[in-house]
Amino acid sequence: MSTAKTRHHHGDLKRALIQAGIDLLEEGGLEALSLRKCAARAGVSHAAPAHHFAGLPGLITAIAEEGFDIFSKYMTDAINAGEQTDRERLRGICRGYLQFGLSHSGLLKVMFGEHGLGVHAPRSDNREEAEAYLILRGVCAPFVPEGEDPHIVEAQVWSLIHGFTLLYLGGEFGCTDAPIEDSPFEAVMALIDRIGTQATG
Fold it and tell me: How far apart are CA 57 and CA 9, in angstroms?
């Protein structure tokens, strides 16, 4: 009796539905996401999601929360992969941010609210989103002048890399399949470096 439905007898149905939603996003974008399609992908009845989510908005919120966990891992891995100097850690988080967007553009749209879905995504009181922001805060901290509001540097770095990521995904800089090093990414890094120089100079 090894049907798809038997996989979810041990409390993993919610996670299976979230993963199904992520898969649908990655394959077909936001328009491909629905409770019925998630249920079919997870191998359960179309009524099953109602036991775990308050409709599609509830599923979107759960997907966004999972997205922020994956997002945090991309940034942390990129930071850890480089030299452990303040400046290289700052550059690393930007590289991880862009790589996440390239690998999970559907998740990025849900997490940050494109097409109005942001009203369903978690905000600053959510653990997953707060954790992602704390990673950003940590690498920005060495560049905050003494006595200054850390949000200023954080907002500058976040705005630059998030804006660049959206423009890059939108094809504004040409082919998104090219290596990051062959994109205008390094131009953005020069601006990031300038923020750091101004803050510490």
Answer: 25
